[in-house]
Amino acid sequence: MTFLNNLLFVESEADNILIESSDLTLRIENRPGKDSTKYHNRYIFVNCESLGLRLDFKMTPTPQQEAMVAVIPLTEEKQHFFYTVKMPNIESEGKIKIADQEHL
Fold this sequence. Notes:
8-stranded antiparallel beta sheet, extended, mainly beta
């Protein structure tokens, strides 16, 4: 548990993230998909009372999903590196609510 700029930051297992403050909650969860544990569903939840904002999404990659992987060395010895996976156009479903307007 770490405090970062007055936010309570909690990181749990399996790349799940929770960030909370007095009026903001950001939660990202990875859960196994129906077909295979290789393809995880990602759930993103944001709630900000002061802005009247609520976002609740589920993103589901498929086995046919294309991805771009980047591995960037951070040192000349290449012992430390940055690894990222980008998956464009992932199927998603959910809602965004801003004040009294809800969007699907």
